[in-house]
């Protein structure tokens, strides 16, 4: 490691302090300088080998006090066995991983993970990424995954004691050992307390159905077996249950009651509970299908910003921002009432909408319940975007355009100064026009789309409204 231990301990604080001092600048990382092997300045941490912050210079491989897992760090601290960056570098993030996450702070999770995986650099967990970035940028004072300096000193002393113990064990054997006399085993009280704490706090006792039929009693009549386990009397109702199960089943059939849950008869009636009542199906999110055509103005890269914020980003520009990595499913937040969808339009269907760009993705959203009656995911599709090309519908449930747009709302998006595709003149579609340069008109187009979608859903599929 090219840097000293002091640099390793202070690297995290140096980065945070430098960013906090440059909070009013456009780029908070401007004060962090990166140099390659020839001491030439570079822009990306992946090309650099040395990091310079003020008068301090250290290698990008220096280990920080930021742990990769806050849960594992908490477990180590609770067991009085804190890790140390020098002895366990794989337990913590390096300076390279921290600065890479800061440089990619505006990237989407998929693009950031792909970049880190390509460079073989440890990445922040997706669920904790925002909180860790807020800590590094000074927006929050602490983070549970950071090893405190007080715990670091304790880890250093523990590492020193371990080194001394190892060196002592490597010394020459005593005369009694040379004669083959076995030394008595000494119980480590710390290990005993640690095992007790793990068993009391974290050990999970697995119970089966037969365990639930047992109970601690002083004695039991009626033929139930009583055994002695771990010094206490335990009643076993298994023989009692076997003797009366046939009688109970015969009485249930005579009374005309439904079979118990889990039996073969109840399994033959899916969707019906033990009391004979039909279970209510859970409300599922509606689906919007985009066109996968390369000429489509709206794709999986720019649809979220267009429908949620009312801002149109050209598809190629949006693709470059995402580094060509698109999400399989895009979640759109549709609000109703006065929440303001499409820039204060106040329209929407009032719930989350899932956006995909293929028939296969629609089928996957149906999950394992897609084969059940009435659970076809195409019944949740409320809108289909088209560029006017009929090949798009070959794999759809309704592959004929006129039949398709009887069951879903068709949407045709085009530039305002381009002629209309002649194929859509006979299709029942809603037209949305996007201006090439006037971005202030995007919100008006988005508001028109949400208003038409809300009106169509109220008439055709009101059960999908919030």
UniProtKB/TrEMBL annotation:
Ranges where the record places region Disordered: 252-280
Keywords, comma-separated and alphabetical: Nucleus, Transcription
Residue stretches in coiled coil: none
Chief location: nucleus
GO cellular component: Cdc73/Paf1 complex
Cell division control protein 73 C-terminal domain boundaries: 283-454
InterPro entries: Cdc73/Parafibromin (IPR007852), CDC73_C (IPR031336), CDC73_C_sf (IPR038103)
Signal peptide: none
Pfam families named in the record: CDC73_C
Localization terms from the record: Nucleus
GO molecular function per UniProt: RNA polymerase II complex binding
Annotated GO biological process: positive regulation of transcription elongation by RNA polymerase II; transcription elongation by RNA polymerase II
Family named by the database record: Belongs to the CDC73 family.
Full protein name: Potential RNA Pol II elongation accessory factor
């Amino acid at each position: 490691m090219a840097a000293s231990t002091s640099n390793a301990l202070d690297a995290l604080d140096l980065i945070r302090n430098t960013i906090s001092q440059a909070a009013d600048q456009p780029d908070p990382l401007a004060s962090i300088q990166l140099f390659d092997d020839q001491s030439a300045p570079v822009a990306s941490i992946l090309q650099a080998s040395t990091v310079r912050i003020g008068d301090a210079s250290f290698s990008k491989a220096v280990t920080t006090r930021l742990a990769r897992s806050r849960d594992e760090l908490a477990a180590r601290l609770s067991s009085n066995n804190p890790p140390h960056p020098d002895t366990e570098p794989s337990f913590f993030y390096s300076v390279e991983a921290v600065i890479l996450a800061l440089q990619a702070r505006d990237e989407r999770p998929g693009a950031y993970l792909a970049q880190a995986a390509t460079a073989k650099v440890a990445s922040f967990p997706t669920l904790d990424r925002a909180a860790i970035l807020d800590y590094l940028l000074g927006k929050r004072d602490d983070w549970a995954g950071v090893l405190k300096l007080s715990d670091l000193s304790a880890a250093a002393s523990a590492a020193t004691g371990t080194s001394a113990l190892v060196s002592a064990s490597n010394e020459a054997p005593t005369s009694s050992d040379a004669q083959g006399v076995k030394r008595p085993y000494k119980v480590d009280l710390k290990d005993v307390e640690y095992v007790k704490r793990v068993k009391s706090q974290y050990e999970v006792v697995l119970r089966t159905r037969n365990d639930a039929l047992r109970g601690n009693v002083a004695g039991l009549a009626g033929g139930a077996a009583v055994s002695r386990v771990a010094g206490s009397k335990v009643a076993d109702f298994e023989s009692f249950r076997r003797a009366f199960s046939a009688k109970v089943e015969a009485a249930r059939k005579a009374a005309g009651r439904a079979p118990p849950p889990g039996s073969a008869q109840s399994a033959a009636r899916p969707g019906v509970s033990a009391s004979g009542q039909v279970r209510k199906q859970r409300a599922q999110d509606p689906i919007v299908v985009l066109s996968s055509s390369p000429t489509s103005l709206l794709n999986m890269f720019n649809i979220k910003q267009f429908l949620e914020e009312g801002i149109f980003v050209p598809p190629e520009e949006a693709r470059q921002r995402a580094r060509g990595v698109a999400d399989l499913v895009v979640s759109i937040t549709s609000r109703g009432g006065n929440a303001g969808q499409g820039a204060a339009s106040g329209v929407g269907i009032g719930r989350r909408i899932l956006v995909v760009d293929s028939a296969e993705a629609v089928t996957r959203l149906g999950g394992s319940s897609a084969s059940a009656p009435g659970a076809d995911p195409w019944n949740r599709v409320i809108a289909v975007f088209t560029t006017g090309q009929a090949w798009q519908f070959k794999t759809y449930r309704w592959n004929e355009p006129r039949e398709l747009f009887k069951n879903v709302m068709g949407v045709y998006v085009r530039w305002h100064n381009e002629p209309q595709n002649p194929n859509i003149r006979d299709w029942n579609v809603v037209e949305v026009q996007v201006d090439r340069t006037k971005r202030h008109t995007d919100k008006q187009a988005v508001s028109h789309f949400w208003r038409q979608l809300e009106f169509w859903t109220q008439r055709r599929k009101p059960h999908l409204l919030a």
